Amino acid sequence: MTNIPTSVSPALRHALLAGAAAMACTPQFALAQSTDRGGVEEIIVTAQKRDESAQDVPIAITALGSDQLKSAGVTSTVDLKAAVPALNITTGTGGIGLPRIRGIGATGQGPGIENPVAVYVDGVYYGASFGILQNFFDTDQVTVLKGPQGTLFGRNATGGLIQMSTRGPDFDWNGKAEIGYGNYDTVHSAAYVSGGLTDTVAISLSGQYDNQQDGFGKNLFTGNDIQTNTSWAGRAKLLWKPSALTKVTLAGDFNGRNSAAPAFRNFTTNALGQNVPAQIEALGGDPHRDILADVDPYMTTRAWGTSLTVEQDFGSVSLKSITAYRHSKFNYNFDPDGTTVKRIEVDNHLYDKQFTQEVNLVSEGEGPFKWVLGGFYMHGNAGNDGSRTTGLFTFGNNGYVEDYNSIKLDSFAGFAEGTYSFGENTHLIAGIRYTSDKRSLSAYDVSFNGNVPPAGLTTISDTINEGKTFNKVTWRLSLDHRFSPELLAYASYNRGFRSGTFITQSDPIVLLQPELVDAYEVGIKSDLFGRRVRFNLSGYFYDEKNIQVMQVISGAQTVYNADGAHIYGIDADLTWRVTSDLRLFGGFNWTHARYTDFDTAIITTPYPLPAGFTIPTGQTCLGTNGNPYAQLGGNCLLIGDASGNKLQNTPSFTASIGGAYDLETGIGKFTLAGNYYYNSGFVGSPDERVKQGAYNTADASLTWRSASDNLFIRLWGKNLTNEFYWSQIGASNSGDNGTYAAPRTYGVTAGFDF
Q1: DSSP one-letter code for 462
Q2: CB under 8 Å to 488, separation ≥6 — which residues?
Q3: Is the whole-model pTM more than 0.85?
Q4: Residue 552 and residue 648: Cα distance in Å, rounded?
Q5: In b/e form, how buried is each residue of 164-195, taking b as 16+ CB within 10 angstroms?
Q6: Residue (of 712, 724, 714, 717) closest to 676 by Cα position
Q7: Tens digits of per-residue pLDDT, 12-26?
Q8: Residue 198 CB burial class (10 angstroms; 0-12, 13-18, ≥19)
Q9: H or E segment at 663?
Q10: Phi and psi for 71 in degrees, rounded to 5?
């Protein structure tokens, strides 16, 4: 580990890190146009559906341009946590992204479960949680909005949202291409080209291919590599601009991934009472990176989509319409029981289809009142397509159970927001939104028992058809005042809503209640010392109800509700343009997130049960086969009280410090960049028994660009200290287990621009 020495108290360690972050700065604002070349340049965002400086928007925002993404070592969605205060991203089942902002996020996943941190790419909502892990080669800007977004955006979001904008068509021909090689026999290639086809039509094409051929570890039972990864993606855009007032963009994209994941490993004992790390060491393996499983994990994702964006300027108002369709598939096969005995094997086949239509009408006048009107429709269909469970606990490994289900969504929403200016410096914002989500479920199981002669017995369960409509009004109130050109202060109250759904993995099927968040926030945004230092600070308090909590039972993930939680904390970030060649960045977040009422939590007790342990009357250890008092390993899962405990996957403290330095020479420009990230750790279960300890990561790069500025070579490294930490942790009836994050990786990338 590379932590601050343990002799330093946790409070002092946090203070030291916070102080260091306050002396550095977060890569919060991409270097865009500015009237002061020596200061921190502005970035324009569309957080309120119109182009505005991020420093004028009364919302806690982190916006990263392509240069800042490179400086911080951010190449994909998962990396964002190292550059965005209050954002933590874990991964579920190897291919599902679980972003969490200020303690609000998803631990559960599955058909119909949308993340409370919404993800948008070029204005298109990505509802499938296994489709949000994006590579950033052709990304122009990433903007993270913190807190509930209950009015202006397509889907309601209780935690916040991540907006990704990709490079679009340009009428002047330009492009870039790069190739690279890294450890673990990893090859990388990517290209982008854009230009005008006619005076009114332009096109852009981009593609990326990555292949990590050596695994981060091995399955010692089969001898095969695990945590290998091959991914590819492509995007095409066609722009038609018949006049300066009209813009039509047709876009299409696809991406795929094949990976030997998820590589679950038990922390200590498995369901048979065997010490898994000791077994791995005895076989000469690495207990951090290797696993023991009777099957190799395997995962594939496939996704594609298309969108049509029409923008029309009518003078006093502008109209924007986004029509989009997305289709995603996610298949994964793994051994969740932590043994080399074929007790449970899961082979899941998930799909997600969605059609969305959003229309925005935005006032463009110069008067004291500005407004936004909008509407949103979404039709979704997500489910399991023959997800199969086999093993000794399924007809003695002589049969299977397959799940077939479909959860459909028809969502209608209308929203309005107005901003009234009291003079030049004071603004009152009020917004309201009405959402109606209709969920419908169709589900049945197919069971095959091969033990029934002569040829086995197939049983099809009765089809379950249910429906439920969730209606909710949400709103936003905000007051901001600019005390000077350098200082803005604001206060806001937002209500966010996350729709309920059916949880098909539970038996019987569960109706998950909608999540509701009331968020109160105050903050300042400032530009100091001749705009060389930018300091932004916000404090917040959230009252969250009907929190959606995940639990794995016998390899199946179910989700249930906790009654409520209180969350409060502080975000701070700083950007310092020391000189025209030296840029520093950093930031920190402190969050206190606790369940208030949670007497229906699943509490885990490791087997063998301690002396005198008594199972409460009317309960059984969920997922346990056989006498619970005779079990040698795994966990007894019982219903209990977790009130006052920490929320999962929520670090109390995070901090990042980094920078970039340019050195001009006779042979070109050299840029040295790096980023350090500290995470205080988090719990993985409501009972706080399974924990990820504090960890640190450090990324760095050295880039040479030719004097003509069109050729570059970059040496890069990520997680340079080779810190070991878990990207997912949890406690199931099979024991305490998780999947680990990437070890040290490094390589070289070369490319050119034109």
Answers
A1: P
A2: 55, 56, 58, 480, 481, 482, 524, 525, 526
A3: yes
A4: 14
A5: bbbbbbebeeebbebebebebebebbbbbebe
A6: 717
A7: 344 334 433 333 333
A8: exposed
A9: strand 653-665
A10: -60, -35
